[in-house]
Amino acid sequence: MHLQEITQASDFEKALPQLSWQTIQEAIASAREDYETVVGLEVHAQLKTASKAFASEETTYGQMPNTNISVVTLAHPGVLPRVNKKVFNYALRLGLACESEITRENVFARKNYFYPDLPKGYQITQDKTPICVGGKVYIQPKGATEEKAIRLVRIHLEEDAGKSMHIEGERDSFIDLNRAGVPLIEIVSEPDIRQVEEAYAYLTEIRKLVRYLDICDGNMEEGSLRCDVNVSIRKKGVETFGTRVEVKNLNSFSNVKRAMVFEFERQLYYALRGWTFIQETRTFDAPAGKTYALRSKESMNDYRYFPEPDLTPVIVDEHWIAQVQEKMPPLPRELYLKFTKEYSLSPYDAEVLTAEKETALYFEEVCQFTKNYKAAANWVSVNVKGYLNELMLTIDDFPIVPEKIAALINLIDAGKINHNIASKKVYPALLATPNKTALQIVQEENLLLEDNTEELQTLIQTTLAQFPDKVAAYRGGKKGLQGMFMGEIMKKTKGKADAKLVSKMLQEALNQSE
Amino acid sequence: MQITKEILENIAHLARLEFDEGAEKDMLADLNKILDWMEKLNEVNTDEVTPLIHISAERNVLREDEVQPSLSHEKGLLNAPDKDANYFRVPKVIE
Q: Is the reported ipTM for this assembly greater than 0.95?
């Protein structure tokens, strides 16, 4: 159907799979700048517990189907759930990290809906009493000069459902309940996000946070981090929000971006045509890059929440909070600020170093033994990471202790070795024999720089005497010849001289009038 | 509150239950009778009363995060109306 022939929204939705999106983009091009996207994200993070939220079978991903199950998970009659204490500890960690208010009296609720991967017919969740209320996540989108705080509405605990598989050509759907009952936290943001870069930065920050806090592995491919996005648009300068839609089925950061852009364009097209729509749930079709409305009966949210009578309240007191607070690891933002402010690293260096907690902590440790933070940053992000990436190792497997990397840096700074020898000779030797110190290796291999100025002076003079014509040419203006002299001298020192010192002395010698 | 035919149909849909048209009248009457009886409670003034969610006074009935032996795969699938070697099989839930 041609776009002009579509006169109402319902026809548009029907034609959507076939519509050329480029035509839509052209139609809205002139109005694009006048509107903005308003986005709130709902992130589900699977908690890294050994056993499930309300039953004690294991949670390991990738097991044979229906092997991590129990009578509780299968909803056999008469069974009772029991709360895993750790899910509270984990949620508290995130809540404290995000400066949320902690709910003292927690009551679980039943969210009722009928689906075969939910054997009980309800999901145990927190409705009226989410464990964390409010809070914020600080983000710094690429290219932005300042941080922005994305406010949180809430963080609550709930259990995951099982997995349904629908296979083309099969009469039945297949149900695997290994995942049913695995603990989740849902992190709901305020509609504070305006751009795809902000959404990306927010998700990156959440993933970093849950990994630093060691409460979720943050693996999107395995589904341990999932995201729904609420999108509306409004004319710039307008305070009120437009009607929003919820887009589900976003299993990667890039799909979140694509869905945001698509919804902005679709909703803007609606606005220009004067069409309205109701609040609805849409699903993202990744290959097509389009969102489609779920049939209204499917998206009808009538969950009939009521308090879960099988679980008694959980009271979180000051003592419990203090216990969790005591064990809080350093947070990525704290380290980022420390690295940029205290250590004067560039935002880029600080970003690279804080991407993974283990790397950040390793770097932190190196900095306890050297004050040359910039050099430490380079060694960790280039040499150490390079080695790990090549061998596909994590920093826990790295053989050299931070103190020895610091000692290596200090040797360079003291002029005992140059950077070239440090990275080409000492570092590989340290990797091979990590029980030795950098100084031992330098001494054993006789790599100490010849810092004897007198000897160097003689060497420079003999070299200059060797090439009187070149010296004359240099003094006549052919300054490029300095490199040739450098090469000759360094060759004679077998590369062990401090290049900076030699260069300085050479220049002095050459510039001396005859 | 009055249970209407629409509410009845909606509840049935949410629970994926079907009912016999002939039984509709009886069902409406029964459900409304139950609600009328519950209405009785509204005669009591509960302004000053905190809602009671649990009869039990127990708090923080928690377990440590320890894995216990789970139900075996075979036992778990034993009562399933339809299954194969790995999965529960259910009537297809999407088209």
A: no
